Amino acid sequence: MSVANEFSEVKRVTTRTLQEMKVKGEKISMLTAYDFSLAKIVDHGGIDVILVGDSASNVMAGHETTLPITLDQMIYHAQSVVRAVKRALVIVDLPFGAYQGNSKEALNSAIRIMKESGAHGVKLEGGSEVKESVERIISAGIPVMGHLGLTPQSIYKFGTYVVRAKEDEEAEKLISDAKVLQEAGCFSIVLEKIPAKLAKKVSESIKIPTIGIGAGGGTDGQVLVLHDMLGINKEFSPRFLRRYANLFDDIHKAVESYVKDVKSLDFPNEKEQY
Ligand code: KIV
User: Fold this and answer.
1) pLDDT digit string (tens) for 164-193?
2) Domain assignments of the chain as residue spans, ordered by start
3) What is the reported pTM?
4) Which atom of ligand 1 is nearest to the CA of 55?
5) Which helix (H) or strand (E) holds 23?
6) Residue 192 annotated to the active site
7) What pairing do the DSSP bridges indicate for beta strands 2-4 and 9-11?
8) Fold of 3-243
9) For a substitution probing ligand 1, which of 191, 192, 232 has the most ligand atoms within 8 Å of its CB?
């Protein structure tokens, strides 16, 4: 599938592309985005997958957890991102409360996301407990990405954001869940904040690509939250986060300069008016 944009003929990334990348050993790049303007820059930057993550609940809405964001709000963010993207595969998180009830609820939520936003697939958290939902969504032709390890929608069950699956029992369950998700038809699985050794083992034991965050270099791809890697959010500094920009300071400086210029009557000058 290919589309024309203002620069060139662009070949779209599909779930099949990601599978081929795993086979070739080419790493997959994924970032979050929640709005038109930043999604456009991220897409132009050559990213493979854009995740409209429920981390929008934290970085866009200022909530402490991902739990409050609603399906309607996720669809709004997804619509804005889809309008901007020419190349990347766009995946949207099913928010907390939109799929845990039963597989019919999960399917209805996934259908709303696909129909109302034009996104290319959905992501949901959990292993064997969401198997039926994954199968039902996929049977409707909707690609599903899984998410194991530190699944933020379960933060109140975990009680902490520390690394998951350090003990054998949880690690065994995670390996088994990855296989369940693969058999249910997931096209990829996010592995969040688990030991690098375990993430590598999981990645080598399944055929579908894994995408890690805080899971080391042995996964088939990497994902970061855009606002964290751009340094917009200064409070969040886990070990796994590499900052590629310092936008908090850059924007802060720009705002300070603007305020100074307005107050001192420096802005607007002769050339900046009609
Ligand atoms: O919502 C999100 O941003 C995510 C990533 C951390 C994988 O699920």
Assistant:
1) 999 999 999 999 999 999 999 999 999 999
2) 3-243, 246-274
3) 0.96
4) 1
5) helix 15-24
6) yes
7) antiparallel
8) TIM Barrel (3.20.20)
9) 192
